[in-house]
Automatic annotation (TrEMBL):
<keyword id="KW-0496">Mitochondrion</keyword>
<keyword id="KW-0819">tRNA processing</keyword>
<keyword id="KW-0479">Metal-binding</keyword>
<comment type="similarity">
    <text>Belongs to the KAE1 / TsaD family.</text>
</comment>
<dbReference type="InterPro" id="IPR017861">
    <property type="entry name" value="KAE1/TsaD"/>
</dbReference>
<feature type="domain" description="Gcp-like">
    <location>
        <begin position="23"/>
        <end position="332"/>
    </location>
</feature>
<keyword id="KW-0808">Transferase</keyword>
<keyword id="KW-0012">Acyltransferase</keyword>
<dbReference type="InterPro" id="IPR017860">
    <property type="entry name" value="Peptidase_M22_CS"/>
</dbReference>
<dbReference type="GO" id="GO:0061711">
    <property type="term" value="F:tRNA N(6)-L-threonylcarbamoyladenine synthase activity"/>
</dbReference>
<dbReference type="InterPro" id="IPR043129">
    <property type="entry name" value="ATPase_NBD"/>
</dbReference>
<dbReference type="GO" id="GO:0046872">
    <property type="term" value="F:metal ion binding"/>
</dbReference>
<dbReference type="InterPro" id="IPR022450">
    <property type="entry name" value="TsaD"/>
</dbReference>
<protein>
    <recommendedName>
        <fullName>N(6)-L-threonylcarbamoyladenine synthase</fullName>
        <ecNumber>2.3.1.234</ecNumber>
    </recommendedName>
</protein>
<comment type="function">
    <text>Required for the formation of a threonylcarbamoyl group on adenosine at position 37 (t(6)A37) in mitochondrial tRNAs that read codons beginning with adenine. Probably involved in the transfer of the threonylcarbamoyl moiety of threonylcarbamoyl-AMP (TC-AMP) to the N6 group of A37. Involved in mitochondrial genome maintenance.</text>
</comment>
<dbReference type="InterPro" id="IPR000905">
    <property type="entry name" value="Gcp-like_dom"/>
</dbReference>
<comment type="subunit">
    <text>Homodimer.</text>
</comment>
Length: 368
């Protein structure tokens, strides 16, 4: 069974073709970073326009890369939510129209479920996690710590009280005036933080202690706190113009480490909570765009070892290109529904705000 997946929930225009044997026949991602660099963030109208401009070509490219005609496709999947309504509508209208015109089955996918299940697509079966597992979804729109009991049953343990970790990376990258690389502002910050600076070794950050983990007794995240610790530091120096490059690098490092430390702290608390509730966790799956950050991965690995020295908890991350938005994960998350005949009407509506805990119970009855 082959599925054409379409993803347009945020700023990447994506199409992919995947088979039920887990073969990724094509996976096209057209990033909009250059559009958004001017705004230093996602501009909703620019994002909609870019999706409208690129999607036809991206779908065409996905078919070409897979060496398939659209008639060879067995089903069409698209991101139904959550996401920016205008952006979602570009992909959903395309998917619905294609499916109706070709008389193919259609499935609307929950974007965050897709991120959480990507690992079953990218890991060899022997390394795939066993349910229940802990999942940390750290992206541009989300900072979520959850327990996955099954592919459709999730319990959210923690979310952010303000903004996502990815947004904090984006803001701090902008605040420090870090040159953007193609992979976007978060990845630019990671790279900038690696810049070698005289005297200071990689572990020597003189002002590391300003990044105090907020709400130490609660599972909830706050990345506005981590961001504003950076803002305060810069303000105390009288502005970025008074901060030399070396200090900027160290500040980027300290921010990154502060964000990682917050994740570690809450992860340790979540593991304790699971143990107390009798939920036996053997795997932590980290996905979302921020999961491609190597410092964060290393710190989480160390944290699991410290929190659970006797029983090994495996850390599983999809490869970086599957951690950020892509349509292969959308096609993958739809596969069980296609195979069991549980498909959507061509009139299915998108759901811009769609809590992950709700979606398993009301797949077809919700409206935007
Ligand atoms: P969501 O999936 O929640 O709707 P999104 O689609 O914007 O949000 P992703 O594409 O999964 O999210 O991730 C993008 C985010 O990840 C951006 O905020 C980006 O800056 C951040 N990011 C990407 N690479 C890195 C990195 N190496 N270090 C830190 N942050 C990163
Ligand atoms: Fe995403």
């Amino acid at each position: 069974f082959s599925v054409l997946g379409i993803e347009t929930s945020a700023d990447d225009t994506c199409a992919a073709i995947l088979t039920s044997e887990r073969k990724i026949l094509s996976n096209v991602v057209r990033s909009q970073h250059s559009y958004h660099e001017a705004y230093r963030g996602i501009h909703p109208y620019a994002a909609i326009e870019a999706h409208q401009r690129h999607l036809p070509d991206v779908v065409r490219q996905a078919l070409q890369d897979a060496d398939m005609s659209v008639n060879d496709i067995d089903g069409i999947a698209f991101t139904r939510g959550p996401g920016l309504a205008g952006c979602l509508s570009v992909g959903s209208n395309a998917a619905k129209t294609l499916a109706a015109a070709l008389n193919k089955p259609l499935v609307g996918v929950h974007h965050m479920q897709a991120h959480a299940l990507t690992v079953f697509l990218t890991s060899p079966p022997e390394e795939a996690p066993e349910f229940p597992f802990l999942s940390l979804l750290v992206s541009g729109g989300h900072s979520l710590l959850l327990v996955a009991f099954s592919p459709t049953n999730f319990r959210i343990l923690a979310t952010t009280l303000d903004q996502s970790i990815g947004t904090a990376f984006d803001h701090v990258s902008k605040m420090l005036d870090i040159p953007w690389i193609a992979a976007g502002p978060g990845a630019s910050l990671e790279q900038f933080a690696k810049t070698a600076v005289d005297e200071a070794g990689s572990d020597d950050i003189p002002f590391d202690d300003i990044f105090v983990t907020p709400m130490k007794n609660r599972l909830a995240f706050s990345f506005s706190a981590t961001e504003s610790q950076t803002t305060t530091f810069i303000a105390k120096k009288g502005g970025l113009q008074n901060i030399d490059t070396k200090t900027r690098v160290l500040l980027a490092r300290a921010f990154q480490r502060g964000a990682a430390r917050q994740l570690e702290h809450k992860l340790t608390m979540a593991l304790k909570r699971c143990r107390k509730d009798g939920v036996n966790i053997r795997h932590l799956v980290v996905s979302g765009g921020v999961a491609s950050n190597s410092v964060i991965r290393e710190r989480l690995r160390a944290c699991l070892d410290a929190a659970s020295p006797d029983e090994h908890i495996a850390l599983v991350c999809p490869p970086p290109k599957f951690c950020t938005d892509n349509a292969a994960m959308i096609a993958w998350a739809s596969m069980d529904r296609f195979l069991s005949g549980d498909t959507d009407d061509y009139s299915v509506e998108l759901i811009s705000k769609w809590p992950l805990e709700e979606f398993g119970t009301s797949l077809t009855s919700r409206i935007a």
